[in-house]
Amino acid sequence: MSVKVLALLIAALSGVTMALQGSLNAALGKIIGLLETTFVVNLVGLAVVSSLLFVFRPGDGDWHRYAEAPWYLYLGGILGVLITYGVVRSIPSLGVAVATTAIIVGQVLTAAMVDHLGLFGLERVPFSWHRVAGTALMASGAWLLLKK
């Protein structure tokens, strides 16, 4: 299996887990509240990754290099909280399919900008009209999913 096919399968599996996670988080949010769910989800995630990192030790990183990373690369934790809150807030109103489609459209638009500008030291991938058309089709799909 090629590296690209494996990466594509992993990305698809991430999409599956995101839809399931969003559904579980939205259901929990109805019971304990939005911010409370955001807290619990991130706390459970911290416990799991802590166990993996410090008990089972599968990590291959260099902790001593943390100061070499620019400060803004650590903003992912804040974004994770905002993502969790946004998903928990939107799914009950929109449904899983519509909310997930809107999330993906936002991801693709942002990813295209990051690619085009080569932000965060990533390789530049020029913006093309194919990407515009693909994103427009996805946005149209989200709009159609809203129709009853």
Task: List the topology elements.
Layout: H1 3-32, H2 34-56, H3 76-94, H4 96-117, H5 129-146
What does this protein structure show overall?
With 148 residues, this protein is mainly α. It has one domain (3-146). The chain contains 5 helices and no strands. Helix 1 packs across helix 3, helix 2 (34-56) crosses helix 3 and helix 4 (96-117) packs antiparallel against helix 5. The longest helix has 30 residues, at 3-32. 10% of the residues are buried.
In short:
By secondary structure, the chain is an all-alpha fold.
Number of domains: 1
Helicity, as a percent range: over 70%
- Provide the residue-averaged pLDDT: 89
Give the low-pLDDT segments.
Answer: none
Structural class, from helix and strand content? Answer: mainly alpha
Largest sheet: none
In whole angstroms, the N-to-C terminal distance is 41 Å
Total strand segments: 0
Order of helices and strands: HHHHH
Globally, the shape reads globular
Amount of beta strand: under 5%
Q: How would you name the oligomeric state of the polypeptide chains in this document? A: single chain
Number of helices: 5
CA gyration radius, whole angstroms: 18 Å
Salient structural properties:
single chain; 148 residues; mainly alpha; 5 helices; 0% strand
